[in-house]
Amino acid sequence: MTRPLPSQPDTFAPYRVISRLGGGLQGEAFLALAPHNNQVVIKAPLNTGTRDRRALDTEVAALRTVGPTIAPRILDYRPTAARPHIVMEYLCGHTVDALLTDGPLTHTDTNRLAVQLATLLDTIHTCGVAHGDFRGQNIMITPGGLYAIDFGCARLRTDSYREFHHHRQADLFHLGALLVRAGTGRPPFSNDWGKAIEDYHDSKADLGALSGTVRTVARALLRRQAWRRPSAAAARTALLHG
Hints:
By secondary structure, this protein is α+β, with helices and mostly antiparallel strands. It contains 7 helices and 10 strands.
């Protein structure tokens, strides 16, 4: 299905929008061409109020803090434009969600992906950033390695330690869920929302055929008591040496 482009084609001039990549509560992203015809990604909030501009500032700060080795490089930032937006490098690859579409990975590939995901999250947290939405759709697999994208829900430790801590714990839970999906092809809790909530509160994560250290780490990351979840660094160490 064709998705709508911005109502004004020149909204992001001098960048020329090609297509809409997707969107959510935090805004929407577009694939565009820069003046020299290289592809870029433009992200803009849906609204232009003070709160939305502040959120965009936080996202830019998070991207700059973690750096271009694990997140898209910022090429341009226009916070005072009629529609504020970030221009980022286009990453060639596919998401973890796309990788898992066809079902579970092999035992070896599950272990390999688990280490890569834990390493990525550990690097983000070590930088003092909590991603806030560490899900398969926001993790890109490229020839150069894994990259985290969409820092729209990110929190910086320097801004609010309480919010940073809360989002970091959510990141760890999402990491656990990704490990289960990689090894079993399904989420750790029921697709039925009501049943999923019940299972979560009863600590009844379905780990299926997941085995070995990955199973042990996933179970720990999915604990209902957030303070009992291991850090990303501890999860990485266990996966590497367990």
